[in-house]
């Protein structure tokens, strides 16, 4: 409902859409050429479903990358899941982690699909706003009130959704903020 209203207003006022991507450039030639090669291939394997967790070559490459980044061995076949975008990934996560009545802390503003996906899973969203300091000039000027956040946690809290950089504000949470959130999570277990 709200998305349709905002889209109409954005059209009427010629606003820049910072929502879902609407590329205004053609696909790169190498992408078109690769797609043409696959479409013209006589290899029947290119017309088959891959494993639902992601193509083995892709998850193996990701496993090697994340083994280096995480400084621990990552088993690509059991520890990596590739999805068809953020919506599917979030939906699967909420469905797998939320039982009816579980509470999910959302930091406002938030990505538009969180609230309905939480509701479908039977969860109860609890909203904690990021607040801009007076005369804010940077994403660092968006503050998460620690007392307000702490008061949102309860025995029913199952998830807190954190993204850094924050979407849509762009705030990068500091190590101190992330440690505070981690400590709250540990203390409510």
TrEMBL record:
Q: Which domain of life is it from?
A: Eukaryota
One Pfam match, given by its short name, reads: Aminotran_1_2
Q: What EC class is this?
A: transferase
Keyword terms of this UniProt record: Aminotransferase, Pyridoxal phosphate, Transferase
EC number assigned by the record: 2.6.1.7
Tell me the route in metabolism or biology where this protein functions. Answer: Amino-acid degradation; L-kynurenine degradation; kynurenate from L-kynurenine: step 1/2
Which residues does UniProt assign to the signal peptide?
none
Please name the GO terms that the record assigns under molecular function: kynurenine-oxoglutarate transaminase activity; pyridoxal phosphate binding
State its cofactor. pyridoxal 5'-phosphate
Outline the extent of the Aminotransferase class I/classII large domain.
Answer: 15-186
Kindly list the GO CC terms recorded for this protein: mitochondrion
- The entry's protein name is kynurenine--oxoglutarate transaminase
Species in which this protein is naturally found: Desmophyllum pertusum
What gene name does this entry carry? CCBL2_2
